[in-house]
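Work Package 4 report. The design task specified in the project plan requires that, given a folded chain encoded as structure tokens, an amino acid be chosen for each position. We show below one input record used in the internal validation round.
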């Protein structure tokens, strides 16, 4: 197969930032093969209200009129059931939960899930999705570090699903075999997103290599194999969320580098490359363009994109942002 035409992709987890960074990255979304995306709210300050989300969406649409932006609110103590209803009426897609302190701009994150029962009930009733960064904070006394932080979060996911069985919950950017097994075992309202980079990387690829460092960190080879397996077998509750997360070069190439891998401008070529190497190119369209919208009850896209098996070098930078696999050659391009 030297050419592949698929419905344009949905990216169910994308960071587009603000100001100058947003001006660089928003116009690159469509180039990466994505026509619809879920925008993360961990801006500074966070996207806290429907009004913030609508304003942010307007700014993004002005920069990328050919992309549909699905907006999210940051789960904060001031989010009320009434605000959830207002957000639903305004077309907000979901609410993003960051446990406090686990990643970039999560200082205002959640400390106690039990405090949000009324909000989760309202979301369940209004059809808003709950998107979860599934890690617990590192804690030496409890033997928690970045390698087991996701696995330690899974009981919380199980509890939430048990209490709100009709709430659509997405465990974002899964990185472990345990998370794959857990999501598979839960009901039809629980799904997981998978990034392009977590299908490639393991611990050795980010330890000492800041540009591959992200949260949650890539784990063991057997964990990566579990991710590869679930996308190659084509499980309908595992679909694309790139977690493309741009940072300026200086913030990545510092002694304490920021977490985030920038994949958006070449997202579909990265994925075609990986799926081709894994021998499951026939599963790419379901992963990028079918399963996610079916899970969320969105109409499938009518637009298509064509990918071709033709070598393509990854640019050294987009403005001040170093992309994933910079300087390497991809087997596919669009
Ligand atoms: O690596 C990451 N970067 N993980 C996240 O959860 C946040 C993101 C960011 O915003 O930079
Ligand atoms: Zn993210």
């Amino acid at each position: 197969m030297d050419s592949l035409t698929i419905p344009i992709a949905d990216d169910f987890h994308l960071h587009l930032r603000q100001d100058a960074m947003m001006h660089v990255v928003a116009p690159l979304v469509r180039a990466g093969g994505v026509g619809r995306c879920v925008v993360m709210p961990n801006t500074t300050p966070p996207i806290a209200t429907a009004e913030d989300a609508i304003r942010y969406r307007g700014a993004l649409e002005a920069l990328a009129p050919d992309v549909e932006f699905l907006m999210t609110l940051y789960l904060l103590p001031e989010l009320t059931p009434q605000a959830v209803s207002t957000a639903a009426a305004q077309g907000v897609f979901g609410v993003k939960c960051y446990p406090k302190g686990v990643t970039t701009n999560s200082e205002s994150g959640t400390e106690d899930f039990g405090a949000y029962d009324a909000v989760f009930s309202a979301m369940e009733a209004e059809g808003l999705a709950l998107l979860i960064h599934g890690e617990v904070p590192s804690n030496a006394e409890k033997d928690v570090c970045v390698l087991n932080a996701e696995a330690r979060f899974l009981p919380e996911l199980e509890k939430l699903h048990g209490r709100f069985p009709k709430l659509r919950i997405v465990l974002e950017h899964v990185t472990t075999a345990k998370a794959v097994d857990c999501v598979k075992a839960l009901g039809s309202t629980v799904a997981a997103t998978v990034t392009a980079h977590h299908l490639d990387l393991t611990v050795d690829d980010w330890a000492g290599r800041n540009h591959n460092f992200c949260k949650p960190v890539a784990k063991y080879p057997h964990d990566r194999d579990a991710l590869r397996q679930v996308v190659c077998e084509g499980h309908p509750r595992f679909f694309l969320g790139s977690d493309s997360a741009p940072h300026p070069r200086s913030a990545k190439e510092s002694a304490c580098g920021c977490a985030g891998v920038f994949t958006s401008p070449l997202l579909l070529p990265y994925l075609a490359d990986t799926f081709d190497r894994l021998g499951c190119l026939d599963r790419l369209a379901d992963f990028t363009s079918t399963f996610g919208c079916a899970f969320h009850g969105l109409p499938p896209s009518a637009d298509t994109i064509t990918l071709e098996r033709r070598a393509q070098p990854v640019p050294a930078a987009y403005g001040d942002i170093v992309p994933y696999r910079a300087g390497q050659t991809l087997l596919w391009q669009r």
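Residues 13, 15, 40, 243, 245 surround zinc ion (ligand 2) (CB under 6 Å). Validation will be extended to a larger panel in the next phase.
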